[in-house]
Write a structure and sequence with these properties.
With 158 residues, the protein is of the alpha+beta class. Helices cover 53% and strands 25% of the residues. It folds into two domains: 111 residues, 3-Layer(aba) Sandwich (hypothetical protein tt1634); 38 residues, no CATH class. The chain has a five-stranded antiparallel sheet, sandwiched between helices. The longest helix has 20 residues.
Length: 158
């Protein structure tokens, strides 16, 4: 089951740096994401949402492209439409990543100049992940982690 973590930071750069650090761990196989997003609340009051493609979206797109390619040979126009529809449907069945309503809720509470990092984690090695975040100062907004792991993350982010 995926775990959700939302952390606020003093700036968008801090959130991006923390995500970059976690992406390094992802390359090492220490963490696997289903989806990530960064929301920045500008000092002008405007919001910027940077949502990376989730693994489920990528999987749906690949499967849709394959189906579309196969169907294109037999039914050229229908193959394109059916492939796109199949890809979207498969992506939806696999999961939605960061919940839009939750992002909206956090946006409404995020002070100007601050940012929030949203993570939907498939699995992670907490012994590697938490120390990687220790150098970033943020505030844990909400998680679905167990109490001990959440407490360790909160302590590391101070």
């Amino acid at each position: 089951m995926s775990q959700v973590v939302a952390i606020s930071f003093d700036s968008e750069n801090d959130a991006q740096s923390a995500l970059a650090s976690l992406r390094g761990l992802e390359k090492e196989g220490q963490i696997h994401f289903e989806d990530t997003a960064i929301v920045a609340h500008g000092t002008d009051g405007k919001f910027a949402v940077k949502n990376e493609a989730s693994g489920t979206t990528e999987t749906g797109a690949v499967v849709g492209a394959v189906l579309g390619g196969l169907l294109f040979v037999v039914f050229p126009i229908a193959g394109i439409a059916l492939g796109a529809a199949a890809g979207a449907g498969i992506g939806a069945l696999l999961g939605n990543g960061v919940d839009g309503d939750f992002v909206k809720e956090v946006k409404e509470q995020l002070p100007p100049g601050k940012s929030a990092l949203f993570l939907v984690i498939k699995d992670a090695n907490a012994d590697a992940t938490i120390p990687a975040l220790r150098r970033f100062h943020g505030e844990v907004i909400q998680t679905t982690l167990d109490e001990d792991t959440e407490s360790a993350l909160r302590d590391a982010m101070k």
